Amino acid sequence: MQLLDGKFASEKIKLEIAAEAADFLAQHGRKPHLIAILVGNDGGSETYVASKMKNCEKVGFQSSLIRYGVEVTEEELLLKVREINNDAGVDGLIVQLPLPKHIDPEKVTEAIDHRKDVDGFHPINLGRMVRNLPCFIPATPYGILLMLKAYGIDTAGKHCVVVGRSNIVGTPMSILMARNANPGNCTVTLTHSRTTNLKELVLQADIIIAAIGKKNFITADMVKPGAIIIDVGINRETSEKTKSGYKLYGDVDFENVAPLASWITPVPGGVGLMTIVGLLRNTLASAKKEIYS
Ligand code: GUN
């Protein structure tokens, strides 16, 4: 078993991004700029957004955090999104999900200018991704592709089983792994909560991408020896043993599955760190007008 080390891969790519950001500053007299909007104070969202902002600063981007209380109206949020769309000094805008129930996430997602949608959630980016056209790829799927590339893993012709069909990970990941690209060119099976023969299908996988959001969902009896395992799960449980007061668990029973795997991502220290890199890469590409001119 070999580890797909998110710390190693992400630090290497962040050095490359920092060098490109320094060039951008020298050429344009400003830094690439990402704005994040955070509504409320969900513990997970607070942690993720803080990490996004911190990493922006690390690679030489400008980052701004706009906070709203849970009582903010949909209208107020949409007004802010439109204001940022028109600000030429901003390259990327993300609105952290989930949003409170009275705000329609689809409306907010579609209100973001697709040219600043560095989360890759807008239907224009999603449609362009399906067609294999230049677009912003959602940060977690993009991070997984960067991880596979960093370790030179050949995916062509392999059977990839994706577990979970979320808009953010499972669905885009299934499309990306099937595309005629590298990484890609897989035969893909997309499984979810209503799949009846899930274990049987996962057992056939050369590559398992677990994004179901359930601690230790993928067990050793579901894994073919030699499989490549990508664990997207970030399941938080309170713990008295850690400084932060919680402990993270993946969707894969790492202890028992790892001995069977050829490659496996740890949690923490795997996909989560690569997600940030995907977001940074998209923000830089937006600043450099590499996707949309
Ligand atoms: N919530 C969970 N993952 C994400 C993400 O990648 N982007 C945003 N905006 N919200 C999220």
UniProtKB/TrEMBL annotation:
<dbReference type="GO" id="GO:0004488">
    <property type="term" value="F:methylenetetrahydrofolate dehydrogenase (NADP+) activity"/>
</dbReference>
<dbReference type="InterPro" id="IPR046346">
    <property type="entry name" value="Aminoacid_DH-like_N_sf"/>
</dbReference>
<comment type="function">
    <text>Catalyzes the oxidation of 5,10-methylenetetrahydrofolate to 5,10-methenyltetrahydrofolate and then the hydrolysis of 5,10-methenyltetrahydrofolate to 10-formyltetrahydrofolate.</text>
</comment>
<feature type="domain" description="Tetrahydrofolate dehydrogenase/cyclohydrolase catalytic">
    <location>
        <begin position="4"/>
        <end position="119"/>
    </location>
</feature>
<dbReference type="InterPro" id="IPR000672">
    <property type="entry name" value="THF_DH/CycHdrlase"/>
</dbReference>
<keyword id="KW-0554">One-carbon metabolism</keyword>
<keyword id="KW-0378">Hydrolase</keyword>
<keyword id="KW-0511">Multifunctional enzyme</keyword>
<dbReference type="InterPro" id="IPR020630">
    <property type="entry name" value="THF_DH/CycHdrlase_cat_dom"/>
</dbReference>
<comment type="pathway">
    <text>One-carbon metabolism; tetrahydrofolate interconversion.</text>
</comment>
<feature type="binding site">
    <location>
        <position position="234"/>
    </location>
    <ligand>
        <name>NADP(+)</name>
    </ligand>
</feature>
<comment type="subunit">
    <text>Homodimer.</text>
</comment>
<dbReference type="GO" id="GO:0006164">
    <property type="term" value="P:purine nucleotide biosynthetic process"/>
</dbReference>
<keyword id="KW-0521">NADP</keyword>
<dbReference type="GO" id="GO:0009086">
    <property type="term" value="P:methionine biosynthetic process"/>
</dbReference>
<dbReference type="GO" id="GO:0035999">
    <property type="term" value="P:tetrahydrofolate interconversion"/>
</dbReference>
<keyword id="KW-0560">Oxidoreductase</keyword>
<dbReference type="GO" id="GO:0005829">
    <property type="term" value="C:cytosol"/>
</dbReference>
<keyword id="KW-0368">Histidine biosynthesis</keyword>
<dbReference type="InterPro" id="IPR036291">
    <property type="entry name" value="NAD(P)-bd_dom_sf"/>
</dbReference>
<keyword id="KW-0658">Purine biosynthesis</keyword>
<dbReference type="GO" id="GO:0000105">
    <property type="term" value="P:L-histidine biosynthetic process"/>
</dbReference>
<dbReference type="InterPro" id="IPR020631">
    <property type="entry name" value="THF_DH/CycHdrlase_NAD-bd_dom"/>
</dbReference>
<feature type="domain" description="Tetrahydrofolate dehydrogenase/cyclohydrolase NAD(P)-binding">
    <location>
        <begin position="138"/>
        <end position="290"/>
    </location>
</feature>
<comment type="similarity">
    <text>Belongs to the tetrahydrofolate dehydrogenase/cyclohydrolase family.</text>
</comment>
<dbReference type="GO" id="GO:0004477">
    <property type="term" value="F:methenyltetrahydrofolate cyclohydrolase activity"/>
</dbReference>
<dbReference type="Pfam" id="PF02882">
    <property type="entry name" value="THF_DHG_CYH_C"/>
</dbReference>
<feature type="binding site">
    <location>
        <begin position="164"/>
        <end position="166"/>
    </location>
    <ligand>
        <name>NADP(+)</name>
    </ligand>
</feature>
<keyword id="KW-0028">Amino-acid biosynthesis</keyword>
<protein>
    <recommendedName>
        <fullName>Bifunctional protein FolD</fullName>
        <ecNumber>1.5.1.5</ecNumber>
        <ecNumber>3.5.4.9</ecNumber>
    </recommendedName>
</protein>
<dbReference type="InterPro" id="IPR020867">
    <property type="entry name" value="THF_DH/CycHdrlase_CS"/>
</dbReference>
<keyword id="KW-0486">Methionine biosynthesis</keyword>
<dbReference type="Pfam" id="PF00763">
    <property type="entry name" value="THF_DHG_CYH"/>
</dbReference>
